[in-house]
Design goal:
It is globular and about 40 Å long. Helix content is about 25%, strand content about 35%. By secondary structure, the chain is an alpha+beta fold. α3 packs across α4. An 8-stranded mixed sheet has the order 6-7-5-4-3-2-1-8, with helices on one face. It starts with a strand and ends with a strand. The protein has 4 helices and 8 strands; from the N terminus they run βααβββαβαβββ. It has a single domain, classed as 3-Layer(aba) Sandwich (Aminopeptidase). β6 and β7 form a beta hairpin.
Length: about 180
């Protein structure tokens, strides 16, 4: 499976707008209706390639599958890490695209930024994402109790990480550009 990452383009904005207004399109991550014009405004600001956060498109030979995201964080106020995420359109899920995209983003961030840690969080019931993260070289660190308000109550999450010196998975044909 050929998977590549690249910058957001004007043609990608309708997909971001769909994620803002279509319940269930992002699965468990639906947090209610959002401003459908916010993606257009953000794209005009920096093309989704910000210093502290951003998005890149996930593309395959048969189309645009979704996007990956990154967000800067720190535990001690000095040492930066990235938190990554992914959102794939339903028709691209379960095809081995997600783990490859997350592995490519991780390698890209390790190549172009000095961080030592990249982390990702997921829902306990999202077994497919847990397997995807593990296949992308991430390790489960533990449960984050009561970390997310979803569907009317606080819920737990799982935290995964990959360090710069952890083994990288072999992703086959894939590439990442941008940042």
């Amino acid at each position: 499976m050929d998977v590549s990452l690249g910058p957001v383009t004007d043609e990608d904005l309708p997909m971001f707008q769909r994620f803002a207004v279509e319940p269930g399109l992002v699965g468990l991550d639906w947090g209610g209706f959002r401003d459908a014009q916010a993606p257009v405004k953000r794209f005009a600001e920096d093309g989704y390639l910000g210093k502290d956060d951003g998005r890149m498109m996930v593309r395959t030979s048969d189309g645009t599958a979704g996007f990956v995201s990154y967000l800067s964080g720190t535990f001690d106020g000095k040492t930066q890490y990235w938190e990554i995420g992914i959102a794939l359109l339903p028709e691209y899920r379960g095809r081995g695209i997600g783990w490859r995209a997350q592995a490519l983003l991780t390698e890209y961030l390790f190549l172009h930024t000095p961080v030592h840690r990249i982390q990702a969080a997921t829902h306990p019931e999202n077994v497919a994402e847990q397997k995807s993260l593990e296949k992308a070289g991430f390790r489960l660190e533990g449960v984050i109790r009561g970390c997310e308000f979803r569907d009317g109550k606080l819920r737990d999450g799982y935290l995964y990480s990959r360090l710069r010196d952890d083994p990288a998975p072999e992703v086959g044909n894939g590439s990442a550009t941008a940042l």
